[in-house]
Write the structure tokens for this entry.
Amino acid sequence: MNRILAAFGIGAVLSAAATAIAAERTVTLAVNNMYCSACPYTVKQSLAKVAGVEAVRVSYEEKTANVTYDDQRTTVAVLATVTAQAGYPSRPINDAAAAK
């Protein structure tokens, strides 16, 4: 019985540590193929559906998407893949997020 309780205790500590390590990050993606004012809506909706994405701001004028996300739930690579699948290939333009 003590082993079971110890295992649950260790699991709780590890779970709390993983939560503490999780970080909110923001990446700016350069988005290709945005040729009309409706394109940013499609990009935003695609990114907003990704688990872990907390906020999305898309600029048609700058051809960028600023995405705030939980780095324990998604990655920059996933975000770029999602935009590409929607018809708008993208790549990170800030080096710090690209390294993650």
